Amino acid sequence: MSFNDTFKALADPTRRTILDLLKERDLTAGEIADHFQMTKPAISHHLNLLKQAELVVNEKKGQHVHYSINLTMFEELMTWMLKFNSNEGV
Description:
This protein has about 90 residues and is of the alpha+beta class. It has five helices and three strands; from the N terminus they run H-H-E-H-H-E-E-H.
């Protein structure tokens, strides 16, 4: 598995803040945008990069798209990182 997109997405402080917001609850793009002083297209760009990195998933509910954290990707990332602590795979 390649984590290149994941690490690229995590490198940006805005995207990390978005993940912190989604840690609390699922949000729409508009609700996420309310926490930032940037354009909605800029927030959409950040969300698309998080989706490409499989860190978030989205689901259309009525007229709104709700974003949530993809826990599976975080579990895979943590499993990979923990290998360094346990000397597995070395």
